[in-house]
Design brief:
The protein has two domains: about 250 residues, Crotonobetainyl-coa:carnitine coa-transferase, domain 1 (Rossmann fold); about 90 residues, formyl-coa transferase, domain 3. The protein is about 40% helix and about 15% strand. It contains 18 helices and 13 strands. The strands form four sheets. A six-stranded parallel sheet has the order 3-2-1-4-5-6, sandwiched between helices. It has a three-stranded antiparallel sheet with strand order 7-8-9. Helix 6 packs across helix 8. The longest helix has 24 residues.
């Protein structure tokens, strides 16, 4: 049986699209109860594909394991229900623009009076202060402004890159912060407001590159990581790509030289030390690529592995999920009914954790959620009659 590590923790998620929902889903994967409070028309990702209704793959991947209630927070009755939900919860997650929840009377200062132990996680785009804090922000904006995008593209001819790294990095940092907040609240009885922004998350994620700049003034580019880590992308004779990552141990460099049948390169002054290989990266890349064209990818990978050189085929998504190692890990769930799904990359006793229940239909759990906080059938019927609950 999959362990529910966060069982007993209730989270109210008033968040849309990716950042907040991804944080909530990670916690649901670990066993928390996550109640998704949606606007009357639902999270915008429900309608990302206008030809489909209720649960698209894009919505499901960020909202598995949750329960849904659609509330009209523009109505006073809807706001009162939200307050009751917050009173019953350990955590509130929201990712509206700065000041939006305060204008509704549902911000931190109000909710902490109702629930002193509440952990309130506010996810923003560019932060809640500063000259551009109110700018509408999506993944590409945060990647661009933080410098993260520059690590993946040529700035002289930039191209958008995927997946949504800013969104998902922010969700991961938020989930981490929430766990710390819950631990603190349970230990002290005092709640806290946490803020995680997409901009700060993207900056923090570039730890080594930023540390190098702050220390030595070196501005990293998309080539910097490859050069410093001694990573190479090559094309074999059959046109298939593969990767080599030498890192620092000298044994990997020596194994590579033996693999390509050029052991004399081991002591070549151009490449003898890692700093030499970094300095002459392009020259070494040319030698390796020329060698790669003499055999198939499968043959090269076999030869490299015999010499214990870190390597792998460069796969697309369809190839990756069908790879024997990925299959063996079991991170993709293949239920007897329904579509495959991705589990959390956290294993316990050799099994990856994950919410097996698919994302909910819009407001599918409204009646039960309202009953859980003490509303009667008559109360619920009245809220539905007023379109407070959809």
């Amino acid at each position: 049986m999959t362990p529910r590590l966060l069982e007993g923790i209730r989270i109210i998620e008033s968040a849309n699209v990716i950042t907040g929902p991804f944080a909530g889903m990670m916690l649901a994967h670990l066993g928390a109860e996550v109640i998704k409070v949606e606007p009357p028309n639902g999270d915008s990702f429900r309608n990302w594909d206008p030809k489909k209704k209720s649960v698209t793959p894009t919505f499901d991947v960020y909202n598995r394991g949750k329960r849904s209630i659609a509330l009209d927070l523009k109505k006073s009755e809807g706001r009162e229900v939200f307050k009751q939900l917050a009173k019953s919860a350990d955590v509130v997650i929201e990712n509206s623009r700065p000041g939006a929840m305060e204008r509704l009377g549902l911000g931190w200062e109000v909710l902490r009076e109702i629930n002193p132990g509440l952990v309130y996680c506010f996810i923003t785009g560019l932060g809640s202060w500063g000259p551009e804090s109110n700018q509408p922000t999506f993944d590409a904006v945060a990647q661009a402004l933080s410098g993260l995008w520059s690590q993946f593209t040529d700035l002289n001819s930039p191209e958008p890159v995927g997946p949504p790294m800013a969104d998902q990095l922010t969700g991961l940092y938020a989930a981490f912060a929430i766990l710390a907040g819950v631990e603190s609240s349970r230990r002290t009885g005092i709640g806290t407001k946490l803020e995680v922004s997409m901009l700060a998350s993207c900056i923090a994620f570039q730890g080594s590159n930023l540390a190098t700049f702050l220390s030595d003034g070196v501005v990293s580019s998309r080539r910097t990581r490859a050069e410093m880590s001694q990573s190479y992308a090559l094309i074999a004779s059959d046109g298939l790509p593969f990767a080599i990552h030498l890192s620092s141990p000298q044994k990997f460099w020596e194994g590579l030289c033996r693999s390509i049948g050029q052991p004399e390169l081991i002591d070549d002054p151009r490449f003898v030390g890692k700093s030499d290989r970094i300095k002459n990266y392009d020259e070494l890349l040319g030698i390796l690529q020329q060698a790669a064209t003499t055999d198939s990818r499968a043959s090269w990978l076999e030869r490299l592995r015999v010499n214990d050189v870190p390597c792998a085929p460069i796969l697309d998504v369809s190839e990756a999920i069908d790879h024997p190692q990925v299959r063996a890990l079991g991170i993709i769930g293949y239920p007897s009914q329904g579509k495959p799904w991705v589990k959390a990359p956290i294993a316990s006793d050799g099994e990856y954790l994950g919410a097996e229940v698919p994302a909910p239909l819009l407001s599918a759990d409204a009646d039960q959620i309202l009953a859980d906080i003490g509303l009667s059938e008559e109360d619920i019927a009245e809220l539905r009659a007023k379109s407070v609950v959809c």
